[in-house]
Design brief:
Layout: H1 4-16, H2 23-31, H3 51-66, H4 79-86, E1 94-98, H5 106-109, E2 117-121, H6 129-141, E3 146-152, H7 156-164, H8 174-179, H9 183-186, H10 195-217, H11 219-226, E4 231-237, E5 244-246
Parallel strand pairs: 1-2, 1-3, 3-4
Antiparallel strand pairs: 4-5
The structure holds zinc ion.
Amino acid sequence: MRPLPLIFAVTAFALLAQEHAAPATKAKARATTPASETHGPPATTDAPENPGSALAELSAGNARFIAGKRTRTIDTAHDAAMRAALTSGQAPFAVVITCSDSRVPDALLFDQEAGRLFTIREAGNAPDLQGIASAEYAAEHLGSKLVVVMGHTSCGAVKALREANGKPLPGNLWALQAGMAGLLESTPQDPNEDGKAYGARLEEVNARRQAQVLLDRSSLLHDLAATEKVWIVPALYNLASGKVQFFKPVSAVPTPKSHH
Ligand SMILES: [Zn+2]
């Protein structure tokens, strides 16, 4: 007797796990299940498996973007296969929290196609509660290994905050100010610093502060970061050069367990 029931069991498990399983995992399951002839695009089979390799993947993609040598986001021949492979699940390896600015196209500048990045965009890369919840969902439920909190040069939101200098902005824009509250107070202009340099410093400090906000406001992300299952990495995108500068992951102290 051939061990057919085992193959059926594996297939059934793969079907049951479909909703949440990583495409990469399913690709492996397919490899051991001769009955299946489905082929996914290469993109779904090489997801980084830890925070360090996730960061390396973004860094390599950004280097390709700077050089004008993108490889993952130019292959339109596989678009249909990519969509088909992603209908049954997603496993984005990284979360990108960045500004809504139209000049910060995260998928292009990291050269990552659909299914790879879980993106949250809000002006000033200052996530509100729903933004934080979205990051939690990706890390906890979809298995993302890295959260990049990315500001950028010439950020209009940071500029608006600075120019308002505490006076309320019109409409609902007060919420932007609330999201970046404390930035100006924590980072006063140096007497020898010109306006441009100060603006650039605010953009970097804002990215670092917002990464810290994630830790402070999310016990779930804090615990994942404290055990190094997820890195939360501030970053700054330079509009002119295309380069993303990554900073050190924000450090989380493990929460002591109350029982033993
Ligand atoms: Zn911006």
